[in-house]
Protein 1
Amino acid sequence: MGTAVDFYFDFSSPYSYFASTRIESLAKELGREVNWHPILLGPMFKLMGSAPLMQVPLKGAYAEKDFARTAQLFNIPFELPKPFPIASVAAARASLYLLQHRPDTARLLIHRLFKAYYVDGLDISQQDKVLAVAADIGLDGNQLAAVLADDQLKAALKDAVAAALARGVFGAPFIIIDDEPFWGFDRFEHIRMWAALK
Amino acid sequence: MGTAVDFYFDFSSPYSYFASTRIESLAKELGREVNWHPILLGPMFKLMGSAPLMQVPLKGAYAEKDFARTAQLFNIPFELPKPFPIASVAAARASLYLLQHRPDTARLLIHRLFKAYYVDGLDISQQDKVLAVAADIGLDGNQLAAVLADDQLKAALKDAVAAALARGVFGAPFIIIDDEPFWGFDRFEHIRMWAALK
């Protein structure tokens, strides 16, 4: 088995959601595990001087169409949530904490958070919504609420974003395999072609 | 046979070049013709407040890697030219003129200009290089030089860019089929899937 596939995602990115539904089967095809990396696009866009996608003239309208069409073409349940985009920091922190302490539960939480936002329309920018999703899979809401307020966890997410940037990650979803970088759900087929050439 | 596929491209865009090598076979699969539309990304980026790709931190370096890898994965001859990117206005004007007057020759010229830049490393931002490529396929260089200086042709290209923007075209390559917009060489597979659903 090769090294794990590094999968960087932001809960506020529909293409990250689409990718999250397929990354495990893709990694399995390649005989690899998945390392999940919650990140925040906000600080990255700031560094790059980029505007958030939906605010770019023409591109925003196209993106909205492309989200829906991509979901349809790949049979992924999806409805563009309101509000969109959102600050995904609470969801990212909760995921990071669990990845550090209970990796198997973390994967389940990540899938449930994506579903909560893109299928059930739950505004997961609200911490109480994140806690409700966590409670649904048997996690202790009170304990997680305390964890989310912890400065060490806040710093850990900042460090994770900085570490991602240092590896050249500037968007989401972003996949790195054996140091080879791939940006976007639309690179999944390229990953397969690239792996076949190796 | 359905309506033609509208194919918008900028000679300065490697993904436009990649797409130009496959758009005719894709259209044929769909039982359609191709309408070629040379455009200029410069005025579009200005309107959208976007920086040119290669100037965006991290994204520029990734793009350079992705150009080379995409070319390799799809078996397309390619070497990132120097200088890159370039002002592609002379090439775009020559293509537009021929599309208006000799469409079959125009297609050949477009393919040759892409090849001149991305395979042979010819700097087609220089008008004399564009004329040399045109002469290679039997066009009259002196006549074309006169045409390229014509205010009517300059205005026609500006109008073409404005018309593209009015249809929501904000990047290249950009494909519109039956009013359905697709942005990027990486949407070719989506086009096939979308057409299969219709």
Note: Chain B has a mean pLDDT of 96.
Protein 2
Amino acid sequence: MKKQILVDMDGVLADFYTQFLKKESEQSGTLIELSTLSGKPESEAFPNFNSIIRSEGFFRTAPLIEGSVEGLNYLNDKYKVLIVSSATEFPNSLKEKLDWLAEFFPFISWKQVVLCGNKDCVRGDIMIDDHPKNLDFFEGDKIIFSQPHNIFIKNDDYIRVNNWNQITDIL
Amino acid sequence: MKKQILVDMDGVLADFYTQFLKKESEQSGTLIELSTLSGKPESEAFPNFNSIIRSEGFFRTAPLIEGSVEGLNYLNDKYKVLIVSSATEFPNSLKEKLDWLAEFFPFISWKQVVLCGNKDCVRGDIMIDDHPKNLDFFEGDKIIFSQPHNIFIKNDDYIRVNNWNQITDIL
């Protein structure tokens, strides 16, 4: 039987930081250097976090993380993939996330998507996520996808990957 | 530690049949008698199932099942409640479902909501659902909420309840 692998969206499939830097610049004219954000929580990294994340189109127009389409396609053949995204805090994001997945990952069915508040109720064998708050409640193998907010976190429970090539190398 | 209880929306909190009978009558003029639907799958019970379920407002304006607000409030004090709804097949339903919950069940937080394709990945101790396809993949106690489509199903694995009073009596 195929192992079940839970794959996060924001920060793993969708390039959350690039989208935030672009929207922050459009909304407030502030140009933020990505290199200054290491170790900062996302909600502190962007001055207009709360309004930008709720703005129409934010999730629908997010750019892809490099290699995510090919990487997820590979995983989808080998594992039982579930896309698990924290989304119910932002009701407008729900349809945008599904439409975005349908556009860029047409091989992922609606049956493979879980939009939730907390991820601790979702069962699986492997989780790929950029947030320790999700990984820490997971009982299987924990793969942390490097993003500026998590870059200084050291935890022997996690396997750290910096890109999709590293994911397909180990899985 | 509180037990985790998974509560379905359509057919347990929302009166799916009453809403369908109303919409079928509005859309096609067909008056269907509820008593003629026993044992029929929902998709066969209503001639315009596919268009009605996708129509704007269908989930947002669904009536409540009697006793569901008081009953869920009771469960929410005693258990860790998660609302788990099959929803990703119908992208327009997602926000409607959250808005509907926020209106009628304001004591339920967005953190307690799971909108998914299949429910077999969601962990819990007790599940209340009207669909065997969901209950059969659940590892905990299975409570089937009577609805016309499931009324003839006999399965010793299920505890059958006909209304919310029976739920609060046994839980």
Note: The beta strands of chain B are 4-7, 80-86, 113-116, 126-129, 141-145, 158-161.
Protein 3
Amino acid sequence: MKVVFIGAGNLATHLAWTMKGVGITIGQVYSHTADSAKTLASRLDVPWTTEIDEIHFDADLYIFSLKDSVLRSVISQMKTNNALWVHTAGSMPIDVFDGHTERGGVLYPLQTFSKERKVDFRNIPLFLETKREEDRTVLNEIGHLISDNVRFLSSEKRKSLHLAAVFACNFTNHIYSLAYRILSEKDIPADVLLPLIDETAAKIHALAPAQAQTGPAIRYDENVINKHLEMLEDPDMKNLYRLISQSIHRETMK
Amino acid sequence: MKVVFIGAGNLATHLAWTMKGVGITIGQVYSHTADSAKTLASRLDVPWTTEIDEIHFDADLYIFSLKDSVLRSVISQMKTNNALWVHTAGSMPIDVFDGHTERGGVLYPLQTFSKERKVDFRNIPLFLETKREEDRTVLNEIGHLISDNVRFLSSEKRKSLHLAAVFACNFTNHIYSLAYRILSEKDIPADVLLPLIDETAAKIHALAPAQAQTGPAIRYDENVINKHLEMLEDPDMKNLYRLISQSIHRETMK
């Protein structure tokens, strides 16, 4: 089997590297940006291109790992062939392939990728979808080659999964950022928070988050809550504090 | 040295157990609630009481680990002696001891404690404060017996630390809870989020959270943001989504 990567961002880099590691042949890398294409291709020791019409026509699998905003346009510029075409986007439906190939699919790894950080793909949940029933087996096999956590999920449900991931990853990270800001304004080294942050994440492996909730908001300790609101000068942080505290409190009444 | 615990909650339980483990003598446990007092005392194999006037008078260190709302009242009912009295509350100033003892202090462990979960105190940052200069050495030595991460911090700064901890722990956990809710409403097993949650926490050991930020809000991808807002039916979740996304976006402009 020969794979072509359309896109060379963080996700594509980690995925391509993992696939090569399990013996899958990567044939070529395309990226709009020469630097990105070159960097990934040289790591994989394969040719690269920045021209859509130079993309190899003879691969078995094309992996579109592109920004949501350009995915449709790149797909529409590709010459149709008989290979499996999959994208890796949480928020894009499988029907972006409609009209361009019958063999559309999705391989969505639920993880946050940075260039600098190694990740172990075996632990990453993969969510698959194929347009044709016959392609399920192929994509399922590919999924299991790289991860121990593979399942099929519809485009409709994947949208909700992506929304949940925005909360669990992007929003959580921003909350960390606000906590760091509070400390750095008082010249307290922010990394004192790391053991607490680690334990907060570790805890929910054993306990559902609704059960693990602690702090002034769940007790609705208005004394502490009001003192905290007074301390927050930034109106956005004040609003966020109030809204999240109310939301925590409301959860107890459900 | 003999220690008496005033309070027998999660923090007191973990702290007392850790102190016993490093060879510190626990003399007695007081709690307003007989069950809590009995449970902790039996684990430590020491006497317990629910009566403030039965608290041993001859200890060297009294650790007040009580709800903020009752701390002052319990302190005021204690007979004054010459021992060191410390509390463990992030949000309470050292001057709660004023008028009752000259030897007030604080030992605040920055961590979230649950009865069921073991924690390694050696990794927990301890924040100490003493009213009298002479008590610094004693409390510092006690701190180092149980943790490798000990420092002194004023009541004023500890207030900010506690506020940051509410963000980093309580608010983060609630964001997890909302993410879980989104998935369970769609019958997607919520624990698929755990590798993402773990990596989000692990990432900021290497990268400041403001640098680690990813997702639609930092790109201000209005297309995705609006789709997500449409998907959220709960008005509170909609508000939270909007407010956090704006706050992420504003951070990029700083």
Note: DSSP finds ten helices and eight strands in chain B.
Protein 4
Amino acid sequence: MTNKKNMTPVGGFPEYLPEIHAVEQSWTDRIRKVFEASGYAPIETVAVERLDALLAKGETDKEIYTLTRLQAEEDENAKLGLHFDLTIPVARYVAQNFNDLTFPFKRYQIQKVWRGERPQVGRYREFRQCDIDVINVDNLPLHFDAEMPEIVAECLMRLDLPPVTIGIGNRKILDGYLQGLGIEDTVSVIRIIDKLDKIGFDEVIAELTKAPALDPDTARRAMALTTIKTADTSFAKAVHAIGVTHPLLDEGIEELAFVIKELAHLPADAIQADLSIARGFDYYTGTVYEARFKDFPGAGAIVAGGRYDNLASQFINKKLPGVGISIGLSRMFGQLLAKNLIAKAQQSPSQVLVIWPRNADRECITGTARILRARGIRTECYHAPVKIQRQIAYAEKKGIPFVWFPPFEPGSMHEVKDMKARTQSQADIENWEPSK
Amino acid sequence: MTNKKNMTPVGGFPEYLPEIHAVEQSWTDRIRKVFEASGYAPIETVAVERLDALLAKGETDKEIYTLTRLQAEEDENAKLGLHFDLTIPVARYVAQNFNDLTFPFKRYQIQKVWRGERPQVGRYREFRQCDIDVINVDNLPLHFDAEMPEIVAECLMRLDLPPVTIGIGNRKILDGYLQGLGIEDTVSVIRIIDKLDKIGFDEVIAELTKAPALDPDTARRAMALTTIKTADTSFAKAVHAIGVTHPLLDEGIEELAFVIKELAHLPADAIQADLSIARGFDYYTGTVYEARFKDFPGAGAIVAGGRYDNLASQFINKKLPGVGISIGLSRMFGQLLAKNLIAKAQQSPSQVLVIWPRNADRECITGTARILRARGIRTECYHAPVKIQRQIAYAEKKGIPFVWFPPFEPGSMHEVKDMKARTQSQADIENWEPSK
């Protein structure tokens, strides 16, 4: 019995005490409600995908966890991996269920995803994302590109978070601008620009002059858009002022202006046009989203997404354009937890603890609990007939707000102790309601 | 573009259309509510555990999925695996957080688990379980062994399922009885007896005479308890009538009689004493639970669990006895789905679809939707200004019960069409409520 198994937490796999997890769960409940309020239907895809589906659009550098059966026979090669986002799975799901879905298909998914990253501050290897996506056949109206950040802004408001402005960019602006500069390998350049927040301006310039071999002046000009952030459509003027022109650039500016205008009714600072947003995934083809906490921008994006016009085409001969956005719930939660900004909930969902004074009173206390539960009041009984003070201390520790004393003597009444007010009074079990 | 990726579902990984998943989600919501009504707190453990934690109590024959990083360096050996149940994880969690938890620790977990089984009818490789467990320090009162099936019986009632009787047995009865027969390797014998439902009586007898090498008469006597199933405590008499005696057998009978008596208030057929229950996991030390649908018992257990007095001791030098029960939600759901007993929900959570007749009316329809949403009514707008009939057909397909016509002409009124009643009438947007 001395050779105990290692139970030290494995880095990057977050796990919480009940009083913290209860907060996270209330967040997912609130987010779900906002998603459903706009008609997004819940679905769930399996955590395990074929490896070749996960390796979509050349994303071979994703840190995918592959699965092997511990007792697998030789030669058995499952070629299965854990999903690392919910976007590739929904594209596969839509292609697979094409004939049974009604389009535009609007769905949300609140699930864990896994990435085999090297553990580092703010990075998780298992984390929860809350995604909404809309996918249509052939064409997907641009107003959905505005609906995504609108719904997320509503979620963030309901969670009562520190300030977040959702940045909205457009891949066509960046791509068109780079093409206008005469750059050919725009994909590689965009991937490097996407690292701006992580490695800083000088390092991005240095990388751009290396692999894609831009000359220093072009590298600097390639970065010119990244400083343009406007609350309204004035970003267009700022881009034109640089003097680079390209048809794709104009198309992107027009799209982004439409999206920003659609969101004019949102509270100030809820969204902004932000041309520094590149997004690392190759599958984005137009609008892109990204958001961080204003007060700790270095802690990484907590919202991300964009439009992908061709993601499902790897599975099916259909044009199925989509747009989606993801709330990085675990990361968001983790950032606030690290700053001590999460207020603990109670350890138990119970509203009432029923006291058990003497062994003989067992049926009285279980019967009392049953009446309260049938009335919708969350109730637990203390588990042993010990000193009342110990039982009350248990309620105190678990944060249970009311302690109930059933009538143990003939003719006596139910009594209830309000733990916060520190008062005790008679109660009518058929009508008593816990105050909030 | 002709070389499409394989999107055929991988066997054993169930995934549903929105109208089916919505039902599954409503089930987990209802189960959660019942668990919380008795004071069980939600927690979540990570899906990934150290492999040696998963290989608890000699359970090396579990079909564990191990994880490898796709881009792992040579020699890197994570020794991580996906959890295959929620009992070993909670034992590890309690040991790890021992100083921060309040005991008795009552928690529920509704999570996916994974088993690398060979795909076969009714077996899943990814599936959801809904577990409650209570774990205490040193001693755990026996009345919790009654609370487990009581809470699950309540869950099953709330789901409005075909009849299920939860069988309750006790490992001590089986173990003591086998010892009373003079059998030494009771663990191996119990593992074989556990296969009764899968392989049948004759095959069990054949196996018992092989590896544990029982003589045919002892093998048959070892099976004598498996026919004893009683609604009350009369099982005790039936056991005594066999004439085998052992102190452990007496202890088990006493425990089971206590549990059955505690549950006398439940509706008839909710529970029964069932001495055929063995349970494959070695970690059970007393009470064991198992339930199947009465109408299709061959489809496998949908509820299982039991008491484990030593599970956490592999991690910590404490005595942390526990008892728990698990609803095999995916399996239960899958069995009913296979029998066409799941009534589809609507494809969309929307209560209202707002019609978009002309491009110019965009602001009017989004404004209308915002008012309805602010009033708590789940509302989506049709996505394009096409023929009204197409828009109504969309509501019909998605099962959206009301179609809303905002006032597009000055002086006209809001109107709402009830899709079921096929009536259309004026509506006051500030007071209208969707009927159920």
Note: Chain B touches chain A through 92 residues (CB under 8 Å).
